[in-house]
Amino acid sequence: MSRDERDQVVVLASSNAGKIREIEALLAGTGLTVRSQRDFAVPDAEETGLTFVENALLKARQAARLSGRPAIADDSGLEVDALAGAPGIRSARYAGPGASDAANVAKLLEALAGIPEATRTARFQCLMVYLRHAEDPTPLICQGTWEGRILEAPRGERGFGYDPVFFVPTHRASAAELDPAVKNALSHRSQALRRLVAALGGQGV
Fold this sequence. Notes:
By secondary structure, the protein is α/β, with parallel strands linked by helices. It has helices at residues 5-8, 17-27, 52-67, 101-111, 180-186, 188-202, and strands at residues 9-12, 33-36, 71-80, 121-131, 140-150, 166-168, 173-174. The chain is globular and about 50 Å long.
């Protein structure tokens, strides 16, 4: 990717406002200008993949094809051991298509009713990809994992998604109770993005 201003713009294949804020903050100072796919009238891609990486690639390819620019996309979700890895790739629509964060959290807590604290282990997974163009045969793929467990009730007002019920043992707080800067230093998304930025730098972006 060349250094002129046009080519420094990378499309973020997401319309999730919380995710966009996080990624913009994490990329501050990298020299990359990230713009939401909404700025290019790119609709949300249909997530028909069976894995996080398949869905991330579907989203990135659509954004790159319709915008004519390089694209970053991630697919992330919550894996709960007591639920055999659910909600997994269905995390954003666990309670049904278009479900709110509150509805998804409520369904998760209902599914875990009666499960003791010691076996409520879980992790956030993030698979992030970068495509130089829609037909890029060698996409960059990076992964981040954030370990924790599921609380019995929501705590905290920050964050989004399952953050209020995701307990972070190292900080004795839910992800929604963490200062945004602290969350951005720990999260699955920040891990994957830091690896992606490092890989991009290694390729002379």
